[in-house]
Amino acid sequence: MENFKEGFNATMEMTATPSYNINTTDVSEKNGSVFTDKYADLRESLNTMSLVIYCLTFVLGVLGNGVVIWVTGFKMKKTVTTVWFLNLAIADFLFTACLPLSVVYIAQNFHWPFGKLMCKLNNTISFLNIIASVYFLVVISVDRCVSVVWPVWAQNHRSVRKASCVSLGVWVLTLILSAPYFVFRDTAPSYFYLDIINCFDNYVLRDDSLTASVNQLRLIRHQAMTLTRFLLGFVVPFTVIVSCYAVIIHRLRRNRTLANQSSHPFKIIASVITTFFLCWAPFHIMALIKLVNSSQRSETLGHVTTIGVPIATNLAFLNSCLNPLLYVFMGQNFKDMVRKSIMAVLETAFQEEVSGSHSDTGDTRRSALSAEGLSMR
Question: What pTM did the predictor assign?
Answer without folding.
Answer: 0.78
